[in-house]
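--- STAGE predict ---
source: upstream dedup step, 1 unique chain passed
mode: sequence only
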Amino acid sequence: MSVVFYKNMGLSNTDIALYTSWLYLPFVIKPLWSPFVDMFRTKRWWILTMQLLIGSGFALVALVIPLASYFQLTLAIFWLLAFSAATHDVASDGFYMLSLKQHQQAAYVGVRSMFFRMAMLTGQGALVFLAGRLTELTGNTAFAWSLVFFVLAAMFIALFVYHRLVLPTPAADHALAGDGHVGVAFLLVFREFLAKKNIGRVLAFLLLYRFGESQLVKLAPPFLLDSKASGGLALSTAQVGIVYGSIGMVALTVGGLLGSYLIARDGLKRWLWPMALAINVPHLVYVYLALALPGNLYLIGAAVAFEQLGYGFGFTAYVLFMIMTADGGRRTQDRALRHLRRLHGHGHDAARHVQRLAASGPGLCQFFHLGVRCRASLFCCHGLDRSGSPIWQGRAMKYCWMGLRPVPVTIRSRWFFALVLLTALMTDFCAAQSIAPQAPGAVSVGQLNAELKAVLDDPLKPLASLSAVAICDGKVVYEGHFGYRFIDNAMPARNLTTDTQTLYRVASLSKLVTAIGVMRLVEQNKLDLDADIGSYLGFRVRNPNFPDARISTRMLLNHTSSLRDGGGYSFPLEQSLQSVLDPAGENYGSGRQWAAVDSSGDRAPGKYFQYVNLNWGLLGTVMEAVSGQRFDRYTRQAVLSPLQIPGNFNTEELSASEIRNLAVLYRKRRNEVWDPTGPWVAEIDDYQGKPPAPRAGMERYRPGRNATPFSPQGGLRIGAAGLAKLMLLLINGGEVDGVRLLSQDSIAAMLHEEWRHDENKQNGDNYKGLFNAWGLGVQRFLDLSAPQRGDRLVAGGGVSGYGHLGFAYGLQSAFFFDPVKRFGMIYLMGGTGFDPESDPGRYSSLNSWEERVLDALYRHAILKEP
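--- STAGE serialize ---
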């Protein structure tokens, strides 16, 4: 459960694998203190005391989560809790052996293993689901997990009270260190254990039987939670809880009970091979999940259920073998020593995964060694089967039902062994296929993550949040999210991390969706790109300085309409644009919304380029007049909904979950003074997870009068994944995921060059060399470069294409694609801590951190440099 907790709190998979792996240390080294459990006090006393300590520890975790140093504090408490749990494990194992006779131990071993796994699945399933649901309801991850840990604390306190009343007091349960020779007794425990016959084979079996499963279980939750671009299944926290806590638990219960019944009926010898296969072969379902990345929750649940069924069935043999290995009067110590299997299983797992995560990221890498693990553990079983071990050949016969009859050995066939090896080789093959995308020439996810996080965490130029996507060969090959969508400067534990569901107000990238909406109306023959827009609006639209020049939709899209932003570009809901644009209108003012005559060049409509946001407010109003719908509702119905993209131009229309996932945009600026070391200051969308109140007068709004309150120029809230789908739509000629939204001709019209800067003709304002060519709502990047000027996107150049840039309220964004080479890059920065104007780029008009992000995406995700 700590894995999902830290994942939700924003830690990277690398840190999670590294730090939580240390929580296994007490279980690995518990043989060093387990003899003291026998020497001092009773097993019953240790069980009750540890339950009380664990309950108190979970309550303490709940209390420290809201603190700024929650990570260090919770990790320290978890480590102490792990020592308590390991001690509880030692004592409960001994209590089990002391309280039950041998045939009862065999009969109940399946039930025992079932409840052990059910406890794990309660933590990984039911409680994770609860944390996910509480997060969705409250919008506060830290608060949700605090409640969950309080629930855990209450559970353990209740168990302490219950067991204090009902646990028996066996006569054999007493302290053994009565003569004061503690050290001698301690050493005798180890000598007695290591003197067992065939102890080497026994330890080899214990080390290797669960070798594969021990590596799989560590990163299964991050694999389920990670985005598909990162190699995961993109499930929510609540969905992971359902898959593990409900579906997995039922399957595990069935497997454990079935294994217990069959061993009690026929004996361990007969069922060892099938159980060894059952605990390993089902790991193939994770290979399939890593290859296919299915989105169907039922299919994912079925795959996990199959793996859990095999685990419950196969683990029964393992537990019984450990019990059989115990001998003499100190079974508690023997049981603890048998946990040396974790030294290899979990230690190897943690080291491997930290290396792999650092090199290539989460998702598929954990399956590469799957076949080797299966083959190693099964080969060890075969070696033990043929060894003639007295533990195997003699004592195993007693562990039939009630110990009444021996069971002859029936599984000795070399053909069966060959079948097992063939299965292992098939596993290796499938695992190799699953790792193929991470082979040389693949995206260097680890290196790319490191470079992007370095941009985010730059102490002199910090960013509040960063989401990035890369597309190569017409597919999303990378998606990364860093930083926080909500920041509490006073209580950092309340910070909410960005993820694949985070929505941003993407500023001028919104214009792309507006343009796509326009082209849909054009295809429906409701709108003519070259017709006078006044014919749609119902009033004459003319620049009074050029009264004979009509203004068309095409001119609005390519920024040559002669409109200007000098008079503003967003007006109150009750105002009409006619009152703003018409010289006779009550809100016309000084006329700064129109270009004036200039002797340096022709400023008439269609002649001169100037990037103007008011173009898009007027364009949205035209769309309303033609469609008969409010702008925000039309774009949702015509563009976002058909592609199943979350988002909206109007925050009042966002769903509750979308509001909770909405990123607040920040700056480290107060009273026009920037301070990179100061607090983050919210600029927009700081709704605290609550839907905004409806604007006054919205119910009286009439479409076609004034669409500027919906910000067609920059008000779209959308996530990086949604933008990636729009990019694929443009790359694929108007179709994505089997949905054709626009014709290829419409896409070609959008990308057709409508204007190109000509310095000699002085035909436009290229904004420090950044705007050099334009289509219909789409910028064309020509790869022009000069010191601190130009539209070059990557160091060294050689990249040209189409897209858009965005800047507003601290957000900086880019959307670039090449439809011929079928690649693209997207970034969304949710807040800047340094004045962008004071930090120009080296080879373009972009800022230095924008250059760093685009160059890193291009090198590692497109060129696939290591």
